[in-house]
DNA sequence: GGTTGCAAAAGTGTCGACACTTTTAGTACC
DNA sequence: GGTACTAAAAGTGTCGACACTTTTGCAACC
């Protein structure tokens, strides 16, 4: 042996950094920690009963996921998502998932259709809007993973939780309006499934792009508050981009890949 | 004062982590550190005269840029780029830069045309293939930044240095064949500039996609070694994907966004 | 000769400490 | 009441140390 054991009680818990990352992510996405809240390393270290090293690593990981942001002086805050952020997230999803659908279509097999259909069945039975969204994201994630494109997967993960954060906020506003939208969503997904299973890469990409775009338009229609700043969202969520001379938000129609059918 | 100063000689150098990141990045991209080389924290710490904390941070940053990879047991190595990686990088560039071009076209102004034309003039005078590539990347970076899409910029940076690493390798093989390719490249860029300046988002996106795709095809034609593994590349660069049951490389034509003109 | 077992070496995860910087909170001053 | 100055508090960057795990090197063994 080497030296005095510090705490023999500690049952060798590795990857404290990952635990902290997961814990913080959950708290942020769920809204338990409000956007804009400062995240000081010593404070978090105390809360998680860890030292600053794993906390630091977790914060870097969360920054990569877009859930927190570092200030000029390296101070960390929970990120606030503005309408512009929402548009960026959606246009990225279109760009990335169109490519994912293209690749997935070329290697589509019967088992994939079965997997997706199982998911769609669950969607039809989903009790809450939140549950429905979770299944929706899961389906999209399935296609992204199936693409086998590791950099695409990585980039997608870089916005995934930001997207869920947006969803959580919109759902918190309107937990009810589930019926009509749900049928539309599932119908859309069936069309998408058909395109993927057809094996036609162009069709799959086009359909995926149109699908995401249409669901985005629906969101904007339902919650114009998100898009124009006259928002009913929690105050901290309502952010005028605190950027340094940031350009104006590009019109949505311009940030979306339009593919002619 | 509080306690004994450790080294009064240290002139307050901040951001050691960034220095290390930049130093390692340069060494990796230039090939001074061979792909596959292990990067042990204590070793690097000694080399850079730093402690492990900033080294660790630098390695995480480089992993994010795709220049190093962590193994199951968290050991770090310089990443080896296979033909599949090359294709992934290019298809990501097409997806991202097409969107960037679309956005840039909507906000294009005379000054931007001037900036690009200055760059093209320099391209025409570039003495080496490496210099030409540097200008090429700079031009593409210009468009990406002009898009004003922060997540797009972030994703692009996530593959930028990997791309340069590929370039460095191909150039090391063939430093000479500059004349014909260069004229083609510059011609392509002029066409691209026209599309961007036209203000037509669809045209800009389409042209950008085609431009990147064609330059990729040219690379594959010139250096089939890169694509098929029968390579003249340095041994460490020649990597059979050491993945765990990785799927086959999707055909290039399937990983590229084809947009009908 | 090749294999197995074991101890040293090398490596990662986490911790606590300190130097320095930025904020915060008073406090004196006008 | 508002403003300028100052000292405490809070925060980040970096360091060295230790506990534990994985590799490596070597030696005994079949």
Write a structural description.
Two copies of one chain form a homodimer. Helices cover 62% and strands 2% of the residues of chain A. By secondary structure, chain A is mostly helical. In chain A, strands 1-2 form a two-stranded antiparallel ribbon. In chain A, 36% of the residues are buried. Chains A and B meet through helix 3, helix 4, helix 7 and helix 9 of A and helix 3, helix 4, helix 7 and helix 9 of B. Chain B binds a DNA duplex (30 and 30 nucleotides) through residues 1-6, 10, 12, 14-17, 40-43, 50-54, 56-57, 73-75.
Kindly name the structural category of chain A.
mainly alpha
For the biggest sheet of chain A, the summary is: 2 strands, antiparallel
| Radius of gyration of chain A, in angstroms, nearest whole number | 20 Å
Average pLDDT, all residues of chain A: 80
Tell me the overall shape of chain A: elongated
Helix coverage percent of chain A: 55-70%
Assembly category: homodimer
Number of DSSP E strands of chain A: 2
Distance between the termini of chain A: 70 Å
Low-confidence stretches of chain A: 1-12, 226-261
